[in-house]
Amino acid sequence: MARSMHVRRPATLASLAAELGVSRTTVSNAYNRPDQLSPELRRRVLETARRLGYPGPDPVARSLRTRKAGAVGLLLTENLSYAFRDPAAIGFLEGLALACEDAGTGLLLVPANPEREDVAAVHRAGVDGFVVYSVPDDDPHLAAVLERPVPTVVCDQPDLGNVDRVGIDDQAAMNSLARHLISLGHRRIGVVCMRLARDRNDGYVTPERQRSAHFHVQRSRLAGLADAFTEVGVDWAAVPVVERFDHNIASGAAAAAQVLDRDPQITALICTSDILALGALGEARRRGLNVPHDLTVTGFDGIREAEAAGLTTVRQPVLEKGRAAGKLLLDSAERTRPRSVLLSTELVIGTTAASPRGVVEERWFGP
Amino acid sequence: MARSMHVRRPATLASLAAELGVSRTTVSNAYNRPDQLSPELRRRVLETARRLGYPGPDPVARSLRTRKAGAVGLLLTENLSYAFRDPAAIGFLEGLALACEDAGTGLLLVPANPEREDVAAVHRAGVDGFVVYSVPDDDPHLAAVLERPVPTVVCDQPDLGNVDRVGIDDQAAMNSLARHLISLGHRRIGVVCMRLARDRNDGYVTPERQRSAHFHVQRSRLAGLADAFTEVGVDWAAVPVVERFDHNIASGAAAAAQVLDRDPQITALICTSDILALGALGEARRRGLNVPHDLTVTGFDGIREAEAAGLTTVRQPVLEKGRAAGKLLLDSAERTRPRSVLLSTELVIGTTAASPRGVVEERWFGP
DNA sequence: AATTGGTTCTGAACCGTTACGGTCACTTCA
DNA sequence: TGAAGTGACCGTAACGGTTCAGAACCAATT
């Protein structure tokens, strides 16, 4: 009943002022600056507001005048809903939400459907700034964000030179994981990676596609691997690298199967994410391969599920990334040059990596 | 460089129009209704816009004029970041995001800190509607939402009579779980529940507090239990019910310990959420109790982790709940009476519930 | 009596759009 | 040839606030 009255409601700050016989300014002050009017008048204003069903100053109008929206926008590469399925993305979101919460700011999830190139949602977003999380560097949504006259922080993106940035050194992190495997004796490896560009390419990846990958994170991780293995004489161009568009355990399993079918002699399967690695583990089990002795499997991210599985991986502080991004954005106080936050990672030695059988034998029976 | 020009940008639709010598309307049409002007003029407008660094119509001003924000607000009972830690909440979010995505609408996470009673964030939110998820029914944020003149959908809330609603029949669902345990022979039970009100009360719950609980979901589940057990002659007032404010596995373990310490003779520990139940399972293991033979443990929600643990529980369609809430809100097309969506639940028979030892013995050696 | 200072309240400008209802020149058609 | 369309563009009036420089008033000080 009370609510149905609200449905079409003419009450506005002006009408309230008229009703009370005071100026709009006074009504505004009643809400925003209680010290600017007598307590008695303020009481009257608020009471009349209640009587007329006036819900207080309209947020949009206020935003227009004050030029603050009280919210930051988040642009994700994937469907909005995907973010809630990927543990790493969830961690990032949690951190970002934490930062927003601290600042009393809202967090607007912008519906940027990667399929249609509909950038309108970016234009429609009434926000004070944007956080962009892991989108391909040629994403039109990203371009649209950069054209908006608001501060922006990118995460897991290449250095754009003129925008705040937070991330990790993916290349170095993956490089150190590679060195670990190399030290264990692995030379014949296969790689399973997430998608490298906006187009779907479920299968083998050419070196050219690796170099020109539009996802900075994936490109860097592959580069880290290539560097390490090239250094010990492995012909990177001959290393099988398979890509999967969809990021889930089934994809990881399918990709692992594809590699193992064509190159059964590999001793290690390096995956660029834990999710893919969990799929690879499943596939190995299905084939009766003993991990790590028949096959080493590694991941990247350090999600909880990976820990439970004992995965050898690289842990990155996903929550911290989100929080850092939020903080950076929210205290964009007259900074001049763009800032860059690089968080550290940690190599997690699990139980899914070991020396390949051949190497062990070498040690025992070698020269 | 190009970006630094944007920092203080005077370019507006009006200034663009002036520069071009056309009316503001025409510039507006260039963006919003290409058919209303000649392609040639439109091209000129857009080009001049680029030259002047005009980023297109200001979203906030547009929202004010059109009276749509292009976003829906989500109000959660907990800290924003908490939502990303609770699997059930994540599922709800995913469903809601799905619905928003379909409609091309943004999703604004409103920072409603449950500690301070700062309702301002609700007032500041520029949204076309609200979804309210599982907040105490006396939450001031909820009251603030209901005063806003926008459509609202509540989820896991009591029927407010004048607002759209989606949920499940918590009472019936828990009742059926209780009957299952009763049929197994359980009569001496303990209960672990989530928090019942806004104040922290880690410990035993009086029947009075149960009845007056401000979290509809918890109140209903307890009522479902009370009904079932009362019916078979159990004195509900004597059943130990312990409450925990924090919702995590450690809390569940601590609560279980509290019950088991005081009432070691109970044969079943009924938890009102899977998370708590997982904690209880851990505590039982720690005490060397064999689940289910020494102790039956049950949960509620049907999260993935529960399935992995073989928990006997009630599965509810959390994703569907989110999606239904979103849909309800987004097609608020001139409905008259409030709508209500009740989703169905499913009793999941796991491996954590069995007949108590006594009952088995009765069967074998009884009269 | 004039000045000062402090409250309390007001007027008008401004925020950047879009909706609405035109005008005007130029076909088209009977 | 006159009436009725049609396409391209424009003027005005909101949309609902906030802000800032005063005005009006009163009490206290010089």
From TrEMBL, chains A, B:
Keywords attached to this entry: DNA-binding, Transcription, Transcription regulation
Example of a GO MF term: transcription cis-regulatory region binding
Gene3D superfamilies assigned to the protein according to its UniProt record, in alphabetical order: 3.40.50.2300, lambda repressor-like DNA-binding domains
Pfam family, one: Peripla_BP_3
UniProt keyword annotation of Transcription present: yes
Domain of life: Bacteria
The HTH lacI-type domain, residue ranges: 11-66
SUPFAM superfamilies in UniProt: lambda repressor-like DNA-binding domains (SSF47413), Periplasmic binding protein-like I (SSF53822)
InterPro entries: HTH_LacI, LacI/GalR-like_sensor, Lambda_DNA-bd_dom_sf, Peripla_BP_I
Official protein name in the record: DNA-binding LacI/PurR family transcriptional regulator
Organism expressing this protein natively: Saccharothrix tamanrassetensis
